[in-house]
């Protein structure tokens, strides 16, 4: 059953409403398989979606927009291996609605988790100071994990957190292909290559410190919405079902989420009724 978003605008005609999923409803599906192996069809769909997203980003032409001071400012955080340009289609739609959108400054998103979270926290401080208001964080995949880490650290600066295909209950619940790519980066770090995540981020103190935050309490009073897709061919969608979040099922591939029309419209409608709040 499709359930409209609370407070969603009426202009979503033509866009599929997300399915609101409760943990009780999903039940035994929460159990993670020992390994995540997407079907051949799902993998092919993922690969084809990259071409579609790339084409949309290349064709993106920023249009003049007018800031609406009644709209919450938004900080967009790209996923693993991506840069801020991956969020350009979403940023453009949000700007057309009057939102002030800000880049994360992360690129490419392949560094040590703690180090990248530190950088994102500094960026959040700059955006909050510049706007004078609490900021909505929208993170795609690993960007959502970074968003949660920063939200827990600085709830005074965050209005809401929206994650797109983010495995916050199990950050390594990924496909074998992505796991192999992560393994290559860890080996490069071991060889002394800076700026990439290392073994410590996968199973050492870094990983344990990150999981302690992800498994801890989420700040009260901050809305946290997790969008997930059962068509995801990169991460196990079950890992997106953070008990601290509201869950919305969408119909998109993992690698298209930041540029998918349905996802963008849902994010837009989630943000639309949120009034900006000045910093305390």
Topology:
Layout: E1 19-21, H1 23-26, H2 40-58, E2 74-77, H3 88-96, E3 101-103, H4 113-131, E4 135-140, H5 142-153, E5 158-164, H6 176-190, H7 199-203, H8 205-214, E6 223-229, E7 246-250, H9 261-271
Parallel strand pairs: 2-3, 2-4, 4-5, 5-6, 6-7
Antiparallel strand pairs: 1-7
Helix pairs in contact: 4-5
What string, H for helix and E for strand, traces the elements in order? EHHEHEHEHEHHHEEH
Radius of gyration: 18 Å
Strand order of the main beta sheet, please?
A: 1-7-6-5-4-2-3
CATH superfamily: Alpha/Beta hydrolase fold, catalytic domain
Point out poorly predicted stretches: 1-16, 27-34
The number of helical elements comes to 9
Spatial separation of the terminal alpha carbons:
40 Å
Percent helix range: 25-40%
Our count of domains comes out at 1
Largest sheet properties: 7 strands, mixed
How many β-strand stretches?
Answer: 7
Q: Sum up the overall morphology in one term.
A: globular
Strand content: 5-15%
Average predicted local confidence, pLDDT: 85
């Amino acid at each position: 059953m499709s359930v409209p978003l609370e407070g969603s605008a009426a202009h979503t005609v033509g866009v599929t409403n997300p399915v609101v999923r409760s943990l009780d409803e999903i039940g035994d599906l929460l159990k993670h398989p020992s390994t995540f192996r997407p079907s051949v069809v799902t993998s092919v769909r993922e690969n084809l979606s990259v071409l579609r997203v790339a084409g949309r980003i290349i064709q993106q032409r920023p249009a003049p927009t007018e800031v609406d001071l009644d709209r919450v400012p938004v900080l967009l955080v790209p996923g693993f291996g991506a840069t801020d340009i991956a969020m350009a289609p979403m940023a453009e739609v949000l700007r057309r609605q009057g939102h002030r959108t800000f880049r994360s400054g992360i690129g490419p998103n392949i560094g040590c988790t703690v180090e990248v979270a530190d950088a994102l926290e500094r960026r959040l401080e700059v955006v909050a100071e510049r706007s004078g208001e609490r900021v909505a964080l929208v993170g795609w995949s690993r960007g959502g994990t970074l968003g949660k880490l920063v939200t827990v650290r600085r709830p005074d600066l965050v209005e809401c957190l929206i994650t797109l295909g983010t495995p916050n209950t199990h950050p390594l619940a990924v496909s074998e292909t992505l796991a192999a790519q992560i393994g290559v980066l860890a080996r490069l770090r071991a060889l002394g290559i800076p700026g990439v995540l290392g073994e410590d981020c996968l199973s050492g103190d870094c990983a344990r410190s990150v999981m302690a935050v992800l498994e801890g309490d989420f700040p009260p009073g901050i809305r946290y919405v997790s969008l997930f897709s059962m068509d995801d061919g990169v991460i196990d969608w079950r890992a997106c079902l953070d008990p601290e979040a509201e869950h919305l099922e969408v119909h998109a591939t993992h690698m298209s989420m930041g540029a998918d029309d349905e996802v963008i419209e849902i994010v837009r409608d989630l943000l639309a009724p949120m009034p900006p709040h000045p910093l305390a």
